[in-house]
Design brief:
- GO terms for molecular function: extracellular ligand-gated monoatomic ion channel activity.
- The chain is mainly beta.
- The chain has one domain.
- The protein is built from one helix and four strands; from the N terminus they run ββαββ.
- Strands 1-4-3-2 form a four-stranded antiparallel beta sheet.
- Strand 3 and strand 4 form a beta hairpin.
- The longest helix is centred in the middle third of the chain and has 4 residues.
Length: 71
Amino acid sequence: MDIYLMMAWRDARLVNPYQKPILVKEEEILEKIWRPDPFFANAKEAEFHEVTFLNFLMRIFPDGLVLYETR
């Protein structure tokens, strides 16, 4: 079973003066940004979907809102 995870949060450290959302495409930048660490409390077994490159999309809005999607 695949799960597509979509999360949103605000980070005051990422407030910026730009008019449009910043699109994060590089893994190096993604690794420097704090992200929630969700878990499934009743999971019996879990593994991360390993691929050649990360499947993610992150947008940072001017008010510090972060939208993050991953598979």
